[in-house]
Every structure is written in structure tokens, then in C-alpha cells.
Design brief:
The complex is a heterodimer of chains A (181) and B (223). Chain A is α+β, with helices and mostly antiparallel strands and 181 residues long. Chain A contains 6 helices and 5 strands; from the N terminus they run H-E-E-H-E-E-H-H-E-H-H. In chain A, a hairpin with a 2-residue loop joins strand 3 and strand 4. Chain A is flat, with a radius of gyration of 18 Å. The N terminus and C terminus of chain A are likely disordered. Classes of the chains: A alpha+beta (181), B alpha+beta (223).
């Protein structure tokens, strides 16, 4: 017998969301957009540094002071001293600011030009890194939660499976915040 | 034709006449430039003029056309054999009104089309085969190589290093400009003016023709 509680339904809706992001060179600068409530929810619960390792891309959750306040963000940077494949230094790809953590939507305009070739490389590398981050870190939670919604038996004491390498995730992820409900 | 270029600026290396110890210009001082002493490039003879160095303009509004007057009045005026040598470069900076336009100029197609345009003009002006212009056009000048890496150049925040020694230098962090380094200091200001006008017109037209190019990438994170 399956238990579909209100919480589970809302959770399922949230987990079905497909994260989407784009970059575009506009007249005023480079616009970065990302829509991913689940990633925002995930990040808002993290306080540790997350490394992919391997010297290619590193994704890390960090705190950055913005306008006098500490804002939690995610910084994706190239390996080898933060240079991309062309040897170009990338100082910042984007910051997940408090607005993103709150709404799940990121919209940043960086007042910097980016050449067409670099735009292609940038998108490829950033999307690969973010996808990797999403699939290895966030989707694990998603999968376990999906299983949880479908497989929970009433007599089970432990209703949700636990990811061993993310002992700090499941408690938070199983309790969607009010604004997401 | 909509505006595409915002400001322009010039750096001219060469020799000027006048009184020793007095700047040949009422508006600016000459900058001493060690690179044009004839020793940095093989076969470059030293310039013998009262004033030797580099003159640098302020950013000039492109639309007003005052840049033409500035260029004419500040062009090296020592006696012709001492106005310029192989090392003397004429660099043109331009900024764009739109950051997207600036990014578009970082396309190789812009560089290739511009080079072709300059080649045609050089031939139309009957520049001799041994003219230093052709040396720069073919990347034989070490201060103006055919290396093309605008993204790396954009990150350079201070003078130094060899990244800027390209045909084009995308001096974003330093000046928010694209610096054209492919032209020598011509003896004749009229030839410099022809190349400069051609460069500005070509750039404006090229950007206008590429406005439909979308610099956008998007995708889902769920592969």
C-alpha cells in the first residue's frame, strides 16, 4: 500500500521540476539565468564545501558578503587554478544569491563581454559542471525521495531511505519549506 | 545607420619637429617611448627628430568627427625620413555603445574580414611590397602578431606581458576598448586617415550586418 500524503504530493511536484539555465550576451552585459527550486532548496540546506575534484570543475557552496550581508552562493570555477580549457581565467561564473535560494530563480547581469567562442565554451563547461553537480548531489536526493514516495510502507519505522554520503541532506529535503508547498 | 562606435582614441609613435624641451602640442605632452629607438626590431634605424616618442589622445567622441582633426594635427611632422621607422606603431582604440557589439568583435570572422579589407586598401593605395604595413599584415612584427585570443586579452588588467601584442587587442579591463595594432605609423597622415576611416566604417557596417546573431545558449540540466 502506498501512502501519498499532502507533503509527498507537493514534494513530488517539486521534484518533477526540470532545472533550466541560459546565458545570453545582451547590450548591457552577460545575463545568467537559472530556474531550479530544488537546487535552491538543496543549497539552502548546505553549509559544506562540495568538490567534484578531478581538476576540471569545482562546484562549491560558499558564503559571499553582498551589500553588508552574508549570502550563500554557489561558485563554479574551472580547475587548474581556475582557468578554463582555453587558459582563460574565470573569476566568477555566477553566484546563487539569497534571492535564488528564496525563489529558485536566478537572474544576474554581469557587466562583462564574452566572445561568441567563449560563450559556447562557457556554456558547455558551466552546464556540464552544474549538471554533474545536480545529478551527483541533488538528484540523489531526488531519487531517494521519489523512491520514498512510492515505496513507503505504513509498517516501516524508517519511512525514507537514507543516502549514506549525504547524512545531512535527507532531513531537510524531506521537509519542504512552506513557500514550496 | 545606427551608432555602434562610442569613443575612439589614438596612440601614435614617431618623430616630431619643434623646439627642444617644449611639447610640440599645446594640448598634450609627448610620452617618451623606448620601443621606437631602433633597437627593438632588427633593421629599424633610429629616428632623429627633436621629439621622439608617443602621443596619446583622450577618448574622442566618434560621431562628432573631431577625431579626424585630432589625427591630422598630431601626426608626426619631423622631416619625412625621421617621422617613423619599422618599430613605430599606430594604434587605434574604439569602444562600442553595446557590450554585445564588443563581444561580437571578438569573432574571428571580424578579424579575417577586416584583414581582407586592409589588404585591398593597401593594394589600392599602391603601398610598396617592402612597406612595413605588409610586415604587420602578415604577422611578422613581434608587437603585432597574428595570435588571436580576445578572451584572454579581456582579462588583462594592467600593462605588461605579451598577450596584448596581437593584431587586435581586446583591452576590456584596462580601457573598455578594442585596440587595433596592425597599422604602422605611416609617413603620410592622409594614408593613416584613409585606413582609420576604413576601419571605423567597416566596423560599423560589420556590426550592423551581425545584429541578428544571437549570443545565447540555453538548456536543461537533466541530460
Amino acid at each position: 500500500m502506498k501512502i501519498i500524503s499532502t507533503t509527498s504530493v507537493e514534494l513530488s511536484k517539486r521534484l518533477e521540476f526540470v532545472p533550466h539555465f541560459s546565458i545570453e550576451m545582451e547590450d548591457a552585459g552577460l545575463r545568467l539565468q537559472l530556474v531550479s527550486p530544488i537546487l535552491a532548496s538543496f543549497l539552502s540546506k548546505q553549509s559544506t564545501t562540495l568538490h567534484r575534484g578531478g581538476g576540471i570543475w569545482t562546484a562549491r557552496v560558499f558564503y559571499v558578503p553582498t551589500k553588508g550581508e552574508l549570502t550563500r552562493g554557489l561558485w563554479l570555477s574551472a580547475g587548474h587554478g581556475y582557468f578554463n580549457g582555453d587558459g582563460n581565467r574565470i573569476n566568477m561564473i555566477w553566484l546563487f544569491d539569497s534571492e535564488f535560494l528564496k525563489t529558485g530563480s536566478l537572474n544576474i547581469l554581469l557587466p562583462e563581454p564574452m566572445t561568441p567562442n567563449n560563450l559556447e565554451d562557457f556554456f558547455h563547461e558551466a552546464s556540464t559542471a552544474l549538471r554533474d553537480f545536480y545529478l551527483t548531489k541533488v538528484r540523489k536526493v531526488k531519487l531517494s525521495l521519489s523512491l520514498a514516495v512510492e515505496d513507503v510502507e505504513p509498517e516501516e519505522e524508517e519511512e525514507y531511505p537514507v543516502e549514506e554520503d549525504h547524512p545531512d541532506i535527507e532531513d531537510d529535503a524531506l521537509q519542504p519549506e512552506d513557500e514550496d508547498a | 545607420m545606427p551608432r555602434r562606435i562610442d569613443k575612439v582614441g589614438f596612440e601614435i609613435e614617431g618623430g616630431w619637429g619643434g623646439k627642444p624641451g617644449v611639447s610640440p602640442f599645446p594640448d598634450i605632452s609627448l610620452i617618451r617611448e623606448g620601443s621606437i629607438n631602433g633597437q627593438t626590431l632588427h633593421g629599424a634605424k633610429p629616428i632623429q627628430a627633436v621629439h621622439i616618442g608617443e602621443v596619446v589622445s583622450e577618448p574622442l567622441d566618434y560621431e562628432t568627427g573631431k577625431w579626424e582633426e585630432w589625427l591630422t594635427t598630431h601626426w608626426p611632422n619631423a622631416d619625412p625620413p625621421n617621422r617613423t621607422n619599422r618599430t613605430c606603431g599606430y594604434h587605434i582604440h574604439l569602444s562600442t555603445l553595446s557590450m554585445k557589439d564588443y563581444a561580437l568583435l571578438g569573432s574571428k570572422s571580424f578579424l579575417f574580414s577586416l584583414a581582407e579589407t586592409f589588404n585591398r586598401l593597401g593594394k589600392a593605395l599602391d603601398l610598396p611590397k617592402k612597406h612595413v604595413f605588409w610586415e604587420r599584415m602578415t604577422g611578422q612584427n613581434t608587437f603585432c602578431t597574428l595570435d588571436f585570443n580576445p578572451s584572454r586579452q579581456m582579462q588583462v588588467a594592467m600593462k605588461g606581458g605579451r598577450n596584448r601584442y596581437g593584431w587586435l587587442n581586446f583591452a576590456w579591463k584596462m580601457h573598455k576598448t578594442v585596440e587595433l595594432r596592425s597599422l604602422p605609423t605611416f609617413r603620410d597622415a592622409a594614408i593613416a586617415l584613409r585606413f582609420t576611416e576604413t576601419y571605423f566604417t567597416f566596423t560599423t557596417n560589420w556590426l550592423e550586418a551581425h545584429q541578428d546573431v544571437k549570443l545565447r545558449k540555453e538548456g536543461s540540466l537533466c541530460a
